[in-house]
Every structure is written in C-alpha cells, then in structure tokens.
Amino acid sequence: MALTVFPRFICCGATACTWLHVLNTSGAGCAVATFVHPSAWGSVALSTCSCSPPAPLFGWHGLQVNAYMFGSVPLRTYLPDGDIDLSVFCSQEVAQSMRDTWALKLQTVIEQEQAAGNAPYRIGDVTVINAEVKLLKCLVDNIVVDISFNQMGGLVTLNFLEEINSLIGNSNIFKRSIILVKAWCYYESRLLGAHHGLISTYALETLVLYVFNKYHGSIDSPLAVLYNFLVEFSSFDWDHYCLSLLGPVPLKDLPSAHVDMALAPSDTLLQCDSRLADSLARFKSEMASCRADMKGRAFVIRCLNIMDPLLPNNNLGRSVVRSSFARIRRAFGHGAALLRGIASKEPDTGVEELDRLFKNTWAALRKHNSHQPAPAATAITPQQQQQQQQQQGVLTPMQIMARLPKQVQMQLQQPMQQLQHQRQLQQQQQQLERTNNQYPAHKAHRQHEDGGQQQQQ
Fold it and tell me: What is the pLDDT of residue 21?
C-alpha cells in the first residue's frame, strides 16, 4: 500500500472510521460547558457567568462581572482529560483596583461558599498561581478550571482559530486535526502540558496551522496532518531557526521576523487564499491593540522557538525545557517512523496497527464514556439513522467497502454471499414453521402426504 494513499485508506477502514467519527467536532456536544458560536468580534457570545442583577462577588455589591471561556472547550478541540479556561472581565476602573488582589478575594469567596454546604458544585484544591499570568486553579466536580483576569488575548486567539477553521472548511478538518494531534501528543507520547515543561496547547495549534499552510494541497484527512506534522517537526532545524507561520526565521536575526526565503514554503495556503491572509492581518492588529504591554518586549529564545502568529515577539515554545526538548524530537521521529511502517502493511493489518498506535487514547475514551450517563432510548428508523450518518460524515459499510482495493472487496464478498444464502434458507424455514403453526390441518395433511410417499417408495 503506497504512502500517498495511506491516509485515505485509513479513513475508510471500519475501525478508523469510528475513530474519526469520535473526532468529528461538527456535531459533538460539550460535556462540561455549553458552546455558543462567536457572533462577531467585539460581542463575543461565549459567556458562562453573567452576574445580573449584580451579585456580591469579591465582596462588593453592585459589581457587574462577566466570565468568558477561551481555549479548547469553546473551540471544541478538548480531550476527555482537558481543563476549562475562564477569564473574568469587569469595568476598566474596577479592573485597575483589583489587578493584584482579585485572585485572593475570589479564593476567599469560593472557600466560604464551600464551607456553607449549599454550593451547587463540589469545588476543591483552590490554589492561586503567581506566574506570568496570575491564575486561580481549582477542581469543579473533578474538572480542572483555570480562572484568569482580563485576559483579552485568549478571546482574540479563540476567534482567530474559529475563523480559520471556518475558512478552511472541509467538515472542520482543521479542528479534527488538532484533536488527533493533541491526542497523540498527550496520551501516546506525553508531550503536552506547559506546566510540565512541555508543549503548550496554543503552540501545538500553531504547528498544526503551519502544516495546513505548507501541505494544504495534499491534506485529505486528520491522519495526513498528523503524519506531515511528525515528519516536518522531527527534521526541523530547531537549533538555528525559529518557526513562524510563514516559514523558518534564523535565530541570529531575531527580533526581526524575516523568513529565510531559501527555506520558506512556496504555494502556501495563505498565498492561495487571500481570505486567510486578511483574517491573519485583522486579528494580528486586534491582538496588538489589546496586548499593548507586549509592545517593545524582546523575543525570548529557548530550545524550542515558535513565533506567535498574532504576536510576533511572543515565543510559544518558551515553556519547553531542555530535557523535554530532546524527548520531544525523538518522539516526533519515532511517531513518523511508526506511521511509515503502518503504511507499508496490508489494509487489514494496517487498521489494527493504527488502533494499537492510539491504544492509550482508546483507553481514555472508554474510561471517560464509562462515567457518562446512558442516553435515553429513542426509536429511530433506518432512514433517519442513515441521514444522521450522512450529516456527521460517517461512512456506511457499503461505502467503506467501495473504497477498499478490488482484491479485498472480492475476499469480503464471498463470505458475505454465503451468509446471505444462509439467511435466506433460515427465513424460508421460519416462514414454513409459522404457516404450520397457523394452519394445523394443513400441517397434518402435509405429514400424511409425506407418509404416503414414503410407503410407496
């Protein structure tokens, strides 16, 4: 099986088709929060908390507070073990006076409500983290929630990725690719997690966007994105270059963002589709206006250097430490070799080995689903089921078979024909038994005729 058709074949296999159905974000519900599509920048409709009428939050009466989700949950690219990112917003006057004290005040309010015993949710492990961006981290019904204050940049990034996904289209292939790459990095290789000295989620999303920009002409599935992701970044010269969305930038030239034209990809998605280039420029300007504190700040060089597409002097790879960096490069190279090896296998063996490649991801999904309440049973006709599958992009068994090689189709058709013949015989036998039960006289007459024929013989 040639490598060029490998991603297409894997997406047609029965098991992999189920896997990609799980990754389909177009119809997936959110188990921990409600997603509302952003209507427009400037009136972001991603609210999880709006205190109206004003409530005594932070100990002040008459304070209007809004909390907005950003990150993977509202983007609907979260993993079963993912967390929720919230940012609290209020008026500029109040924000200036609370910038240094909001986290401790919120921690006090949460702990007081928990002590009262009438809180609607179980909240524990409330901790204030004094990092570059101050966070209040807590567990809400065993779900990690990170609360920040007035972080407008997270909302700009969310809207940018949402719009990019919409412009790329193709059944949300950008989002589905992010989920697949995140699943491999988190469950199979343990490479994801900025607080552990590993890759941050936004850095990974930027790398996936770079793959789309460079390889858009050959991408037809999330698995193709994963393969190009692993090949590209296992061989990238991280020791001498910073990766930007437009191509490699020499480290010696920083803070200049000029790409090395000898290594820059050609015929990119941004070059072919002006809508994406316009979107990038618009959100880049929006980010610059809301992150004025970053103006003039130098790009901090680390072992892994990834330029923020919306804020060029922000290094998205700054969380990766030296010891993790070496392991990340080895894992990328090993993953690419494994996918290359699976591509050389026969179709039936290839699907099984692909499942083994994601064995930890499958285990996480099974564990997550075992804790979910069983859905209410509703009657559904075969026509409705087929219509739902078409809307969700799920292939029927006949469509799956039609995409397999002819030799495999012939091997599968023979046992299917035998099974169909056996079913026909069973149906005839059942029909005869029903007739005999309904008409006993007819059954006795048949037995008498059969007995007479045996005597004559």
Answer: 32
Tell me, what's the pLDDT at 74?
A: 94
Q: What are 141's two structure tokens?
A: 């019904």
Only one residue has tokens 């969305």, namely 245
Taking phi first (over 0 means left), then psi (-120 to 50 degrees means alpha), and beta for anything else, what does residue 192 get? Answer: beta
Helix (H) or strand (E) holding 86: strand 84-89
Could you give the dihedral angle defined by the CA atoms of residues 414, 419, 424 and 425, in that order, rounded to the nearest 10 degrees? Answer: 110
Query: Contact, 137 vs 267, CB < 8 A?
Result: no
Contact between 302 and 315 under an 8 Å Cβ cutoff? The reply is yes
- The answer to whether 44 touches 159, Cβ cutoff 8 Å, is yes
Tokens for 441, please give them: 């006289």
State the chain's maximal CA–CA distance in angstroms: 110
If you write DSSP's letter for every residue of 133-149 in order, what string do you get? S-EEEEEETTEEEEEEE
Task: Report the b/e string of 225-246 with b at 16+ CB within 10 A.
Answer: bbbbbbbbbbebebeebbbbbb
Q: What's the confidence (pLDDT) of residue 109?
A: 85
3-state secondary structure of 259: coil
Helices first, then strands: H and E counts in the chain: 18, 8
DSSP at 377: P
Give the whole-angstrom CA distance, residue 454 versus residue 457: 5
Other CB atoms within a 10 A radius of the CB of residue 349 amount to 12
To the nearest 10°, report the CA torsion of 332, 337, 341, 347.
20
Nearest partner of 159 among 260, 73, 285, 37, judged by Cα: 37
Collect the ranges in the chain with pLDDT lower than 70.
1-63, 371-423, 435-457
Are the C-beta atoms of 310 and 294 separated by less than 8 Å? no
Contact (CB, 8 A) for 243 and 306: yes
Q: Is this prediction's pTM over 0.85?
A: no
State residue 91's pLDDT score. 81
Neighbours of 66 (CB within 10 A): 16
Residue 285 confidence (pLDDT): 94
Residue range 394-414, pLDDT digits in tens: 444 445 445 555 544 555 455
pLDDT for the residue numbered 373: 59
**The pLDDT of residue 348:** 79
